[in-house]
Write a structure and sequence with these properties.
mainly alpha, 313 residues, single chain, globular, 0% strand
């Protein structure tokens, strides 16, 4: 079996696990605190990886990465907040629908998407609509997690709006990283989850695109902290280790995906990486005992199917 398959699958599992535990920490700490310190820890891990690789910086790739980080920085805060307030089994597939954004960008630049992309868009939109339908909190809401600061209102319009906002931010991240990977590798990168990790091509140079995105996202998160209330960003204290592991897990997923893209078929690896919401949903149902209505379960399946179709297009 090609090494790209287990590496691609591992990247999806790492992304999903990092999302779940990031959401858990956001129920105990402000979302901005979790986003900032996890991103900082991930940036340090990425710096170590780049030092080991010994690849020279690519100025163009870093520039595109800086643009990508603007979207991801804002998206992370919205994503962690929606995970903290809402049902993770619902939020994860909605946020993954950011894969639609590269398809829209392709249309704007005159590139006609294929039938798989069109079906993927329809499936994700239908999935979001079904998932967003309210259900009875008393029956389906998961039990409170020890240490929660408040009892989150699940399934509300606010949670759905934040999840969609994070999807838009992640989608813009995909588009800019796609352009950065293409500029450094000299070849076009694919969309969706493939673009999210920065496809391979120039012996690790796409990692500099991710490095630029990390720098930019940290700057955006710092700006958000300056204009928000003082308590929004604080030292995580004894939860620093758990928060740092979230960022390291996310960075590890990016690295796994970058290596998977160099050794495997990008279409296959992209689909495997795009399955990250599955890990989040499984962990939420296993550890938090989350439950959705029948229609919402159908919506989750449709949304995930749409993401897979978009990644394979």
């Amino acid at each position: 079996m090609n090494a790209g398959v287990p590496l691609g699958l591992s990247s999806g599992l790492c992304w999903g696990a990092a999302d779940f535990f990031g959401g858990i920490q956001s129920r105990r700490l402000p979302a901005l605190t979790v986003a900032f310190w996890s991103q900082l820890a991930g940036a340090l891990a990425l710096a170590i990886a780049l030092a080991i690789e010994g690849v020279r910086p690519a100025a163009t790739g870093i520039a595109w990465g800086l643009a990508a980080g603007v979207g991801s920085g804002c998206a992370l805060v919205l994503f962690y907040r929606s995970l903290a307030e809402g049902t993770m089994s619902m939020v994860a597939p909605i946020s993954a629908c950011g894969a639609i954004v590269p398809v829209a960008a392709a249309l704007l630049t005159g590139n006609q998407p294929g039938i798989l992309a069109a079906l993927g868009v329809l499936a994700t939109i239908a999935g979001v609509i079904l998932v967003s339908r309210p259900h009875t909190p008393a029956r389906f809401a998961p039990p409170a997690v020890e240490g929660d600061q408040a009892s989150p209102a699940r399934g509300g319009r606010r949670v759905v709006a934040m999840a969609l906002g994070s999807a838009l931010g992640f989608g813009l991240f995909y588009v800019f990283v796609d352009a950065g990977a293409a500029s450094t590798a000299g070849t076009a990168a694919t969309t969706g989850a493939v673009a999210a990790a920065g496809t391979a091509g120039s012996h690790g140079s796409p990692l500099w695109v991710i490095a630029g995105a990390r720098m930019s996202s940290l700057a955006i998160l710092s700006m958000i902290a300056l204009v928000s209330r003082r308590s929004a960003l604080r030292w995580p204290g004894r939860r620093l280790g758990a928060v740092a592991l979230v960022g390291i897990g996310d960075t590890g997923a990016n690295l796994l995906f970058a290596y998977a893209a160099t050794t495997g078929n990008l279409a296959v690896v992209g689909v495997l990486g795009s399955l990250y919401p599955v890990a989040t949903i499984v962990l939420a149902r296993w550890l938090l005992r989350e439950r959705l209505s029948g229609g919402q379960n159908v919506g989750v399946v449709l949304a995930l199917t749409g993401v897979v179709l978009l990644a394979a297009a």
